[in-house]
Amino acid sequence: MTGEERRELIVASLSQAGKPLSASAFAKEFGVSRQIIVGDVALIRAAGLGVRATAKGYVLETALNPDSYRGQVVCQHQLAETETELSLIVGLGGVVVDVSVDHPFYGELTGNLDIQTEEDVAAFIDRVAEKNARLLLDLTGGIHLHTLVCRDQSHFVTIKEALGEAGLLYQEK
């Protein structure tokens, strides 16, 4: 199998999967190293196809439902409140697409999250604890942005209000 054929199969698998697929799973399927798959995905992206890497694997970027709404919220809290924040968002029907911070040296740093369910929240929190990982918010005094996708703008507003009531939105001092 050529690299081009493998990349076509990767795109086909991602378009039909409906869930993230890992580089390790592709490597096993095609009998190549994980690094070969990482390179394949880089070439797919360079060709103009939107592939996002999440903690759960690769997903193909597709057009949003025309009625859905994408917006950003600016939050500020500590690590201990992360689960509360994420659970509140998904509990009200939002999807946490990513998190970003404005780093004083590197500029904007973004991490893809793709957190859609309470199970995703639990898995994320478990992974952070298991790896003793630091979150991006640690770099900026807890200030960070989330891109959210919601059914519509009114659901986005509801989520933003709930985050404010919980004391999780950034408040200018």
UniProtKB/TrEMBL annotation:
One of its GO terms (molecular function) is metal ion binding. InterPro entries: 3H_dom_sf, 3H_domain, HTH_11, NadR, WH-like_DNA-bd_sf, WH_DNA-bd_sf. Residues 6-58 form the Helix-turn-helix type domain. Pfam families: 3H, HTH_11. Ni(2+) binds at residues 77, 85, 144, 146. Keywords: Metal-binding, Nickel. Residues 73-169 form the 3H domain. This is Transcription repressor NadR.
